Inverse folding.
């Protein structure tokens, strides 16, 4: 069942993100990896900055989460994570379709360049990689991330029809 996450889901969101992010360990640049991948204060900052999380719940437990953030002229899909043991069951696609239906704005997604599985997932769902120049411009305009993270990230875009 799809549901909008509330403050009561904070611990579960935190747990899911840090479980799923283990896939990045040894893949993304070592200067970008830390444990926990997303500390609780950083998760709270993301929520405070307007990232609204949605989840899929099975048997009373969140199995995956994905955030959406309105940036005025575009919408960002943020922090898409599925519990490691429950991947490849359509949860991510279900969340993505739901969030896409929530906006009429063009959608942007940022992810690590080394996370080839994430890039492939978004491409399978109709997103396209933007050029390096456009990626750099978009990441600096719509995300609050370090220059090093800009260097090691990709942006995928999908225009609304």
């Amino acid at each position: 069942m799809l549901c909008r996450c509330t403050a009561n889901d904070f611990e579960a969101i935190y747990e899911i993100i840090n479980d799923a992010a283990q896939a990045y360990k040894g893949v993304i640049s070592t200067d970008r990896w830390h444990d926990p991948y997303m500390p609780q204060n950083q998760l709270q900052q993301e929520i405070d900055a307007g990232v609204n999380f949605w989840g899929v719940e099975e048997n009373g437990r969140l199995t995956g989460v994905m955030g959406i953030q309105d940036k005025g002229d575009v919408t960002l899909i943020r922090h898409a994570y599925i519990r490691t043991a429950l991947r490849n069951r359509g949860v991510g696609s279900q969340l993505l379709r739901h969030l896409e239906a929530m906006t009429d704005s063009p959608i942007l997604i940022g992810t690590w360049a080394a996370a080839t599985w994430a890039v492939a997932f978004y491409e399978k769902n109709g997103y396209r990689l933007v050029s390096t120049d456009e990626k750099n411009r978009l990441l600096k305009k719509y995300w609050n991330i370090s220059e090093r993270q800009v260097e090691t990230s990709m942006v995928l875009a999908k225009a609304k029809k």
Summary: The first strand starts at residue 2 and ends at 4. Residues 10-20 form the longest helix (11 residues). The mean pLDDT is 95.
